[in-house]
Amino acid sequence: MIWKELEVSVNNEAKDAVINILMDLDSSGVKIDELENNRITITSYHSSDIDLDTLLPGLKSKIGNLSEYGLNPGEIKVTTSDNNDDAWSHEWEKYYEVTKITRYLTVVPKWKAYQPTNSDEIILKMNPGKAFGTGLHPTTILCLQALEMYIRGQEEVLDVGTGTAILSIAAKKMGAGKTYAFDNDDNAIVSSKENIELNDLSNEIVIKKNSLLDNISRNVDLIVANMLPEAIFPLIPQAFNNLKENGVFIISGIIDEKLTDTINKLKTNHFTIKQTFALKNWRGIVAIKEV
Fold this sequence. Notes:
Elements: E1 3-11, H1 15-24, E2 30-34, E3 39-47, H2 52-64, E4 77-83, E5 99-102, E6 105-109, E7 122-126, H3 138-150, E8 157-160, H4 166-173, E9 179-183, H5 186-198, E10 205-209, E11 220-226, H6 229-242, E12 243-255, H7 259-268, E13 271-279, E14 282-289
Parallel strand pairs: 6-7, 8-9, 8-11, 9-10, 11-12
Antiparallel strand pairs: 1-3, 1-4, 2-3, 5-6, 12-14, 13-14
């Protein structure tokens, strides 16, 4: 099959945001190559019937606008070419290994054999799919660690921007009650359903296509969201309206430079900051709805 390659060279700190932009352009997958001076090239693969040349001006504009959210993409270089080699589709598998998140929580790629090391270990069997390209991200790890700390049992949970549904699956296996996973991306919905089935939770987690919490009205115990600040900010008042009093709001996807702005936005919307987490240059926050 002939694919079209779209190569984007930017600063490493913009990697996740650029991948999100490429997914919105119907990317069928990405791979990452690290360059010198903290630069990377993201190669995105697209169906041959997509006219990439007409998309380039809008793509460059969206990447340039990332600076408004505290991300510096640096010099933006974009090229296109044809590729008839399908080997790339399994290239990303080499980035994924069995990953112990905590003593009790382990993420296992579906193609890896793994035996639990203790009887209390929770195994998350995952197929990352094309929504990812470079292994388990620090922001996902921060959310998983926070869930382990705040899930006590039978909480009703909303997972916003679920991606692969890893956070919903983890919450449910930790003992959560009703769990709902939302995402506005068709690829994410497909990936979520597959991973939920891999973990035998098809009857336990509700997956729905939805933008943030638009038109959602519930009264839940915990909301978790692993997204970039441009999505987190409009979600904050929605989360407040969907949480019970003393409900827990776990968020990540925040770069260090945006931590203060995010905390201030939470406080403005009547949240109390309970805890912050850090891994590399990424931050996570646990906030409590206190009325």
